[in-house]
Amino acid sequence: MKVKWQHVGITAVALLAGPAHAQVQSGPGFFGYIDGMYVLPTDTGQQHLLADRAGSGWSVDGKVGYRLGGPWDVVVGGRYFDQAKGRNRFSGISNRGDGTYWNIDGEVGHTLSGPGWGVRPFLGVRYQHWRMTAYKFSTFGLSDSSADHDAWGIGPRLGVDAAINLSGPISLFGGLDTSFLYGRVTDTVKNTPGRGGGGVPLVPAKNARTNSRLIWDIGARLGVDLEVAPQVHVAVGYKVEWFDGIQSRDFGRGRAGELIHGPFLRLAYSWGAPPGGTVDGPPAPVSPIRSFFVFFDFDRATLTTTAVQTIKQAAEQAKAGRWTRIDVTGHADRAGGDAYNMALSLRRANTVKDQLVREGIGASQIVVVGRGESQPLVPTADGVREPQNRRVDIVIN
Description:
Blueprint: E1 29-39, E2 42-43, E3 53-54, E4 57-67, E5 72-83, E6 93-110, E7 112-114, E8 117-138, E9 143-167, E10 170-193, E11 205-229, E12 232-247, E13 256-270, E14 291-295, H1 305-320, E15 326-330, H2 338-358, E16 366-370, E17 391-396
Parallel strand pairs: 15-16
Antiparallel strand pairs: 1-4, 1-13, 2-3, 4-5, 5-6, 6-8, 7-8, 8-9, 9-10, 10-11, 11-12, 12-13, 14-17, 15-17
């Protein structure tokens, strides 16, 4: 079984991530997800006395991608988050602040997959803009101050998403990415005079610095995905991201950054890929008298209600006529590796044989063969999930 991305996780998705199974989306089509995240308070990396401490906040981000029909996909997305008030680590100083961040991403992904797992490396470009204003109020009678940090950057981004099926519709997914952005950072500090010792007014001061620099960020995420309906997924997880160089230490000297982390909730959906399941309506037999098709759910060798009825009809047809042998041939679609699909097709054929025996057919008169993905009913490209190719042919001879 392959892993469906909801972006995945893209994650997958794939992307989207990320996307009963976590399966790489097959066939051309759109996919996407949206995340809501609660941002926990954290230090900003400043080192001076009036060090900023970011407060809690919220974040929303999402992506929309298009699967190109093979392992390749293209994705665009963006993110916005807002921080609430923070508190200084020193009891003699209180502060409040607010910050906003947004980015736009574009990327190209390539999915590698096998039975029950998928990995999607990707390469893209990111533009980001960060702005934070911190207001600090001294209780020592010295001065009040505010600091504006404004940073933007654009540059390459690369990373990887991965997922593994745990059980049925439940999958574990994660990802890691990093960006190297060329941009500019402006730090402006303003001091409002209070009264120092002896009641002497302090002189207001303003210090602004602009630097061109490389801004670096790295992020990671880990979560659990549940497919609640065909092509519809919900997921919960945790994200951590470090932004380096978006501020300066010590009022304009050196570099400082910020750590963003917190839990998130994801909703993902994909269009274009046919959902797994039984083909509706009666199967189209090669011959109305001697041949029957039994269809299976994706990556399953268990019989559906419709499949049991089809086998019953085949057994009744065989017992009503003059026959010497029943050929039972298993098949798989092209959404897995050759060896895995060969074994899966044989399991499906043996499942049908066992049901024929229960219907009164002698086991010695049934010939079982597995063909893997070599004889599709509907020709597809490699990696494509096709319901009509997940079948067992019953031929009465």
